[in-house]
Amino acid sequence: MPPQVRTAVIPAAGLGTRLLPFTKAVPKELAPVLDLPAIHYVVKEAMDACIQHIAIVTSSGKGALQEYFKPSDEIDRLLRARGMNTVADEFRQMTERLTFSYPVQARQLGLGHAVLCARDAVNREPFAVILPDDLLVSDEPVLAQMLHAWQSNPGNYVAVEEVPTERISAYGVVDPLPGGQIDSRTYRLRGMVEKPPAGTAPSNLGIVGRYILMPEVFDALAETRPGAIGEIQLTDGIARAMAHTPLFAYRYQADRYDCGTPLGLLHASLSLALRRADTAEEVRRWLRDLE
Ligand code: G1P
Fold first, then answer.
1. Is residue 1 part of a domain?
2. Are 257 and 161 in contact (CB under 8 A)?
């Protein structure tokens, strides 16, 4: 039985340039998706997968993230007075079941570097990484789906989905080992590449922002030099760790929304509103009116 995965690292130190000018004043991770900040959903996903410690990698000017997760009796009272008991209960659970730490990434050198900045917070145990831009909506949280696979075959895991050819170059792309499929969702890999030039992708399976990693990956990240777009890439660090740690891709089951762009946020908000009994009808009416 492998050790438990207790920590989820959430890289949130980026400048959020795709959401400027909003991000001039507010961290992009606090942009609302319907009625909750994007980062609230991913912290809830981690909590539902029995994670106990959330390490949010931040940078200067992003203090509002710490403010958001600070327990507050006054906000608890206000939420309940407005009938928002579910959210109040979620905050209470977060306070009771999670500890938060805030490692700092002083310079934006890439996603791999951001994860390396959480090394001391993780403390030589297997850990999860969650990219808050990727909102995944499913009955069983994707992180929990991956943890089940990881418990049967420990190693480094990346979540993947099928991506159309014309968009694959924006992703990390996995290279499955021939004959290495373990079950309908899990593939053993022989490599992966970050943002492959058009026409060179090794498969149509693009990496999406959920990872389960062994602590040795930190040594690999410390040795990883800048790669695609001049940044220290997480994909390259994990690929490097293949020398000693088996690598798997997990093809998850969920709907995915990109909360890193204005249109993606709108798409996510609309989709969540259409799923909810108290908002669906009104939103459907608006959409009909707009046709
Ligand atoms: C990051 C990762 C990439 C992954 C993507 C998923 O890229 O580096 O491997 O496919 O997230 O959202 P970014 O979108 O930050 O360029």
1. no
2. no
What is the Å distance from ligand 1's center to 206 Cα?
9
Q: 213 to each of 86, 121, 218, 275, how far by Cα in Å?
A: 32, 14, 9, 33
Question: Is 209 touching ligand 1 by the criterion CB < 6 Å?
Answer: yes
Pocket test for ligand 1, best of 28, 131, 192 (most atoms within 8 A of CB): 131
Q: How far is the CA of 140 from the centre of ligand 1 (A)?
A: 23
Q: Please report whether residue 125 resides in a domain.
A: yes
User: How much helix, strand and coil, in percent to the nearest 5, is found in the chain?
Assistant: 40, 25, 35
pLDDT tens track for 47-103: 999 999 999 999 998 999 999 999 999 999 999 999 999 999 999 999 999 999 999
Neighbours of 229 (CB within 10 A): 9
- Beta-bridged to residue 130, according to DSSP, are 210
Q: Which residue has the tokens 């995965």?
A: 5
The residue type of 155 is G
> Could you report the per-residue pLDDT of 165-210, keeping only the tens digit for each?
999 999 999 999 999 999 999 999 999 999 999 999 999 999 999 9
Asked, for residue 207, whether it belongs to a domain, the answer is yes
| CATH value at residue 55 | 3.90.550.10
Decide if 14 is inside a domain.
yes
- Contact residues for 265 (Cβ-Cβ < 8 A; gap 6+): 31, 32, 33, 38, 259
Report the nearest atom of ligand 1 relative to the CA of 133: 12
**If you ran DSSP here, which 8-state letter would residue 13 be given?**
-
Binding site membership of 134 for ligand 1 (Cβ less than 6 Å): yes
CB of 208 shorter than 6 A to ligand 1? yes
Give the total number of structural domains in the chain: 1
Residue 114's region, left for phi above 0, alpha for psi from -120 to 50, else beta, is alpha
Domain containing 81 equals: 7-290
How many A from CA of 89 to the centre of ligand 1?
32
